Amino acid sequence: MDLIEVGCGNGGNLLELLLLGATPERLSGNELLDERLRHARSVLPDAVRLWPGNAADLALGESSFDIVYQSTVFSSILDDALQESISAAMWRWLRPGGAVLWYDFTYNNPCNPDVRGVSLRRVQALFPQGRITSRRVTLAPPLARVLVRCHPALYGLFNCVPWLRTHVLCWIEKQ
Which of 29, 78, 156, 163 is the most exposed place for a label (fewest CB within 10 A)? Predict the structure, then answer.
């Protein structure tokens, strides 16, 4: 499968996919920040294609990818119009039968004004044609840090409580 990660950062997720057996020639990444993109280029095989800049402006062909992946990118985009233009680009890049793989948090972080939670309702508005399957998956990080310091087993126990999970994993399928 051909996969692109929007906001690939330093390339960590793409490296993980390679370790899981992904073919470098079928992986791509996009990163807005030059320093992160340079680091990704230094750790990833040359066959992994990397594109700089705003994902909304990339001249990638329609139906180019089976999976378009984003992990905690949209929560860093505070402008609704920019979120909409990037999600529209992601949708264009998807082949029929492909999907957006989405991981992001759903609640605002009161300690960080530079991020904003993205509700499942907002995900649905960004991808109105998509068939969305979602699951809350990550224990609230501030709570998790405290619990793990007390005892690592507490993470699993508290993560069993759905309303304590602040992140959502979505598979947004294009028919």
Answer: 163
- Report the chain (175 residues): mean pLDDT per 10 consecutive residues: 98 98 98 98 98 97 98 98 98 98 94 95 98 97 95 96 96 97
- What domains appear along the chain, each with residue ranges and CATH number? 3-137+167-173 (3.40.50.150)
Q: What is the CA radius of gyration of the chain?
A: 17
Closest CA to 91 of 49, 54, 55: 55
pLDDT at 110: 87
- Residue 59, helix vs strand vs coil: coil
* C-alpha separations of 4 from 31, 70, 111, 151 in Å: 11, 9, 31, 37
16 contacts: CB under 8 Å, gap ≥ 6: none
pLDDT tens digit sequence for 19-44:
999 999 999 999 999 999 999 999 99
Q: How many helices (H) and strands (E) does the chain have?
A: 6, 7
Q: For 51, phi and psi rounded to 5 degrees?
A: -120, 130
Separation of alpha carbons 174 and 154, rounded Å: 38
Left if phi > 0, otherwise alpha if psi is -120 to 50, otherwise beta: which for 53? Answer: left
Nearest to 99 by CA among 90, 110, 108, 89: 90
33 vs 9: CA distance, rounded Å: 8
